[in-house]
Amino acid sequence: MNYTTPGPLNDVFRTHGTEEVKKIWKKWYRADPVHAVKQLNEPDLVFPVLYTLKSDLHKDDQHLSLKNRLALYHIESIIHGEPFHFPMNADFFEQHHHGIHCLRWIVSTGATEKIDEHYTAVVDGACLHLLHHFNEDCLGEIVDIIFHRHRAGEERHYLLSAFYDANEPQSLLYVARYLYSNAPEDVVLAKKILGFIPGVKEARDGRESAETVAHWLESNLPYLIHTGENNDSFPHPIPYAVHAPAKYLGVPIDRRTGTPYRGMTPVERERWEQFIRLPHALQVRLAAHSERLRRWQRQRWREWMRQPLQEQIRLSLPEEGRP
Question: What residue segments make up the domains of the chain, in order of their start?
Answer without folding.
Answer: 1-136, 243-323
